[in-house]
Amino acid sequence: MDNTRIKSESFSFWFEAAKDYYELTKPGITLSVVASMLIGFIMGTAGSLNYVLMFHALLGTYLIAAGTSAHNMFIERGLDGLMHRTSKRPLPDARITSRNSLIFSSVLIFSGLFYLLAMVNIVAGIVSLVTTIIYLFAYTPLKRISALNVFVGAIPGALPVVGGWAAATGTVFEHGMWILFGIVFCWQVPHVIAIAWVCRKDYEHAGFKMLPKNDPHGIKASIWVILPILILFPTVYKLFVMDLVSWIYLAGAMVTTAGFLWYGIKFTLKRDISTAKGVMFYSFAYLPLVWIFIFADWIIL
After folding, report:
1. Which of the residue ranges 22-31, 103-112, 142-151, 197-206 would you say has the lowest mean pLDDT?
2. CATH fold group of domain 27-172
């Protein structure tokens, strides 16, 4: 009986530890990065997919994205403890030590980088490295310095599609990959602005300078929500004009973007927590839906 209890407690300990380390990788963000990379890879592939290469690209991207997210948590561990929504993360809650999180994140980043360089191609590895550097050493510290961090942060947020395309082709000089980049960049700005508006008291308490600052009535916020959504329409349409996708993608993506605009207009008119949450929650669904339309287009046609 004692042996059984000891084994059960040991399993429970390791299971909880694994959960904490998994949480450290920000699974939602990491999986979003991998999904974006996959779309870039599919779009960049001419002819039939190289499934072996795709697997290597997925694995390498997952490792470096997970490590980057974990290292971001390491850097912001003190600030996370000041915000209600992040105070129960593994580091501020003292479930993982700073030293262990640093080792864990570093191992993931370097293993992912070397895996991409060895198993995919140098260009894909460089794109992933640039993404990590901008995210950790430009965007992360800039959050405490300037509200322009929103636009800087949108760059590493949009680079995974470029990385996926580069994994398939070995180049970053194809027009289509930068149209995909533009879609993700334009999506990310209202997405982050809406989150910043909903959580602005938390951000202010932790000392983050998020857009919109000095904007109690949401005038600036509404502009930075509406403007990128409007730019999304021609950007989404451009993929169709370039003959990279069919009407299946175009119809679905345009309707989805129109829905995004509708929520943006509601926020512009009311500028309250309820309508900001509408933009925020719709933005969570927007990019996956656009990716689904691209994937469906590729499968069907």
Report:
1. 197-206
2. Tetracycline Repressor; domain 2 (1.10.357)
